[in-house]
Amino acid sequence: xxxxxxxxxxxxxxxxxxxxxxxxxxxxxxxxxxxxxxxxxxxxxxxxxxxxxxxxxxxxxxxxxxxxxxxxxxxxxxxxxxxxxxxxxxxxxxxxxxxxxxxxxxxxxxxxxxxxxxxxxxxxxxxxxxxxxxxxxxxxxxxxxxxxxxxxxxxxxxxxxxxxxxxxxxxxxxxxxxxxxxxxxxxxxxxxxxxxxxxxxxxxxxxxxxxxxxxxxxxxxxxxxxxxxxxxxxxxxxxxxxxxxxxxxxxxxxxxxxxxxxxxxxxxxxxxxxxxxxxxxxxxxxxxxxxxxxxxxxxxxxxxxxxxxxxxxxxxxxxxxxxxxxxxxxxxxxxxxxxxxxxxxxxxxxxxxxxxxxxxxxxxxxxxxxxxxxxxxxxxxxxxxxxxxxxxxxxxxxxxxxxxxxxxxxxxxxxxxxxxxxxxxxxxxxxxxxxxxxxxxxxxxxxxxxxxxxxxxxxxxxxxxxxxxxxxxxxxxxxxx
Amino acid sequence: xxxxxxxxxxxxxxxxxxxxxxxxxxxxxxxxxxxxxxxxxxxxxxxxxxxxxxxxxxxxxxxxxxxxxxxxxxxxxxxxxxxxxxxxxxxxxxxxxxxxxxxxxxxxxxxxxxxxxxxxxxxxxxxxxxxxxxxxxxxxxxxxxxxxxxxxxxxxxxxxxxxxxxxxxxxxxxxxxxxxxxxxxxxxxxxxxxxxxxxxxxxxxxxxxxxxxxxxxxxxxxxxxxxxxxxxxxxxxxxxxxxxxxxxxxxxxxxxxxxxxxxxxxxxxxxxxxxxxxxxxxxxxxxxxxxxxxxxxxxxxxxxxxxxxxxxxxxxxxxxxxxxxxxxxxxxxxxxxxxxxxxxxxxxxxxxxxxxxxxxxxxxxxxxxxxxxxxxxxxxxxxxxxxxxxxxxxxxxxxxxxxxxxxxxxxxxxxxxxxxxxxxxxxxxxxxxxxxxxxxxxxxxxxxxxxxxxxxxxxxxxxxxxxxxxxxxxxxxxxxx
Amino acid sequence: xxxxxxxxxxxxxxxxxxxxxxxxxxxxxxxxxxxxxxxxxxxxxxxxxxxxxxxxxxxxxxxxxxxxxxxxxxxxxxxxxxxxxxxxxxxxxxxxxxxxxxxxxxxxxxxxxxxxxxxxxxxxxxxxxxxxxxxxxxxxxxxxxxxxxxxxxxxxxxxxxxxxxxxxxxxxxxxxxxxxxxxxxxxxxxxxxxxxxxxxxxxxxxxxxxxxxxxxxxxxxxxxxxxxxxxxxxxxxxxxxxxxxxxxxxxxxxxxxxxxxxxxxxxxxxxxxxxxxxxxxxxxxxxxxxxxxxxxxxxxxxxxxxxxxxxxxxxxxxxxxxxxxxxxxxxxxxxxxxxxxxxxxxxxxxxxxxxxxxxxxxxxxxxxxxxxxxxxxxxxxxxxxxxxxxxxxxxxxxxxxxxxxxxxxxxxxxxxxxxxxxxxxxxxxxxxxxxxxxxxxxxxxxxxxxxxxxxxxxxxxxxxxxxxxxxxxxxxxxxxx
Lengths: 481, 481, 481
What we know:
3 copies of one chain form a homotrimer. Chain A is an all-alpha fold. Chain A is 70% helix and 1% strand. In chain A, strands 1-2 form a two-stranded parallel sheet. Chains in contact: A-B, A-C, B-C.
């Protein structure tokens, strides 16, 4: 076990180092990008309308064939390997209400929250459905594989019995992907999302295998495995998914009144269902604690997000903070929701996290954008990244303070919690970076969306007649060139 | 029992024959319609504004009196006949989560999905509430009557004890009516809906009595009794509820960006709650299988609906398919969700059904409209009709393949499933046709909506000041005449 | 106990007397207001833009400091006093589905329903979140205090064990505050809401202490403690929260098509979850009865609200009645939902209440506004006040008609129910009036919103670029002065 911990520290030192020299490397990459985009054999025609059109056709054909083929492979594997976990249905059905609540969060909550972009509603909801539909069966298979690795009583090829706990894990994986998607939303093609939905679940499960199965970390609400992992993965991807000035100042990278209200609706449902999210896999009294702690933390975060919003926003509230930062309290309880952190402690954690999250939208997101050229579109850093980090710290403190007999590793549990945090960050950083490089360089023609069609539905959707009139006119090609 | 099967075959042969000569008969009816509309004593003034106004007043007065009188009758009957089913509340309360989920589908899901029409939001939601409010007590009474017919231990007049399983059945009946409503939405008056909500539940329960109580068909999620029945009923009604060219090309028979997003919200909630819909009346392990199968099938259908949409839509997604066809996977599991169709099998069924449903919107709906002059406004054929048929076929295959001991009729269960399918189609076709004839001919003045007010709220609703500005201006009387 | 009853009668006689002389007193207050507004040391600059700006800064600073300080006090008190109620988690988790359903009503239902104001969507949802976040911990503390007062086995200072039943009570308190907020929506500052959320929960719990703990009244769904209390409290506040002519004729005190649809979405979710609301604290068979009665009553109210709407609205439906009056059936079952009122009786009660509620919007609200200068913005009188009164009457009749052994006071239970009703009205009237006087006179500078910014988000929110274009232009300063 110590070997793992040491390996982790080494990897993270390397990554921190790497992060430190980010800008140097970025300049290199930018030059490299410039070269490949202008001269590379595969993308010489990306700058022209005809080139883009032919790339779009290619992307469309590959997407249709690849996604059908991939789904067919998953179906065949499920057909060969899976059976229903029957014989203890009462125990399983106890999980169903949580499954349904998390499903509300994944499909309605995330989908509507990401519809805050005024011209991206079809894509936000459509891609949320696409990602979930592809992720659930794939994650079921991956989960079965990694759970079998840990299971001494059965060999990997034996029939795996799928129960509602596996379905729930698959939804957690979908939530992770949607968090990542939030960081690069508006700039990806469906085919790129297909690649994302093939690659990221593998790393999600590798991370779970390492930190939960091997390191025995405590993470009841996915504070590390879902929120921190998804946010860091997306942030790492955003580095290569940020283009020139136009990306930042894009006229469709904004909301309108009705899209803000739709996002509020999604956000409010996320709030409502968050206690279920954190309590889903808790057991016994831990479930009661998870619910009470999450509600207390959400109340604290809601108040402080609103107050901080007014404090730093010139005496006015900012609806972005209401849509996002109020939820930071739920994330902050992600690791330790079922532990005895005290009700006051949970509320205080939420109070601090909500304020930090609101400030993140005002200070951290622009700083990342201007200093590192990393555009975090939905601000997942502030909603999932930093609060996820806080939840990991709360977990470390809680496992240190509470009775040793509660945890797998007794008094050394905090060390394992910390290792788990670093492993999560490491895997997510490396994974996000490598995946985004793959998508940008190897699969360059996939990103054939013209920059003036970033953050809108025009490239991939049939549009209603009033689309161009939504919230005034968007930018046209002429405005951009 | 054989007599029933034979009767069914005879009825369906006749109906198929009838359907074959559809067009001939239609021409006759069209001529007949022309005559009665121009010359008939009750409708000579339908073509004038004053005539419509007086009809509207008549319709309004009759609606107010008739619906209050009808509700009063229902209340008196409930008062005389019903008592609460107490004494086993724990067992009953297990049904409550499913009741609530189905209620979300019925009121929010269907209501919002049908709000896709850009100027019909008030009507879509208001009539959904009206239909449900009238259907629930009436269906409770009908269900009690037909359940008593099967109950040898009590005579019909004895007090009936209403439990949550009866309430759930009443919601299923409401869902059926809302599917039917989807086929003729935008062209009916409240009074016509009142007649619909009096007549269709009777046939819904007759169908259940025949195929479930008598034929012993397996239909856990209402694939036949709800989806197939409701869609065929609506389709049969649409034949006489399609007017001239203006109906098809009507400028308000379209969506706008915000109405599409509202419909997406309803559709996503239908997706989320569909596992509950299919698992509600399943028992034991069947409930676990119903949930897993429905989710697997929905994932398959979501992917293939999106892929098919892009394939047939010139490289772009169509939001209509995202709103509707992704749900076809839930319908496809309607009959056999709780059976061991294997997880891969469920996903594959969804994959096939979703693609067929998307194609249906592009090919079947226009074909019905132009070949048979049947306008299926919401496309219930593609979302409920064809997937309902697929679910019946899946049921036949599953009952043939699975262990005989599971089913009431052992190895001959598939024959009964097939009979049930034909009975459902027969009753729904005949019922829909007769009812629509009743509404059009006998009650001609009820449909006093001018064609330029089809698909909008103008005739029956007080409107906010911005109504005419929603998504550009609609058609006015002058444009149409 | 008789002393209490007598005291109540005296208080109510006084209050009725007071209400009778309302207008006389109002004239005095109006004159007083005129004097203090023109001459008072604290408000001499309210009429000028600079004065308002400086007041806004003051209000903002005080709001930020006071709400953080208040939340910190609550957190410290929770930290000192609270622990988790563990050891009987299965019993507690049975409450969780109801907790979650009520949470959907509180945050999504009320928030979206109050977004019917076309330019007040951010405020409606944001303040709903603010009120709930502040109310939940405060109500937990108050509830613990009053429950301890009744508990002979523990002294007040002993650690209080918080369970899901306490969390549920806290949500009920939030619902009460949101009902009150509905009466004065659009005219309050965040700081005024902070004061409201400090004061009203105290009176809410005092009322519960008197009528439930002391008088032993039956009130399973909060017909008196929540709906009647919240509505009367808000109505009493509205007396001093109604300004000149401009308040009534304000151009932003209206809806647009999309805001009406959002409110319909909230209303429909309230409908769906109302059975859970009324059944949450019922026990045994009472829970089944509460669900069936509430659904029956809602069906009745939905029909009669629609019919009445058309009857009094010139043959057209009014969407305001669909958004609100359909829910009156749920309120009408508030006191007696779990009793054997018979299913027909529940539906008939709903039928009557829905019609009265619709009529209330057409006749009572304008009458209050013009006769008493009380502007009830959301019409809580018609949705919660009158139906709450009906629910109290239903409770009196039901306790008189049913077996005496069911109730704490046997055959004299109806007297206690009636006393409870008067106590509720008395406390709410007095509380609302005193609080509003406090907010208007003592804290005059807090209400620095210019009248042309009533009912819109301009004063307190950062706005998207299309805000002014929403539903045509609103009133500007120039139009008003």
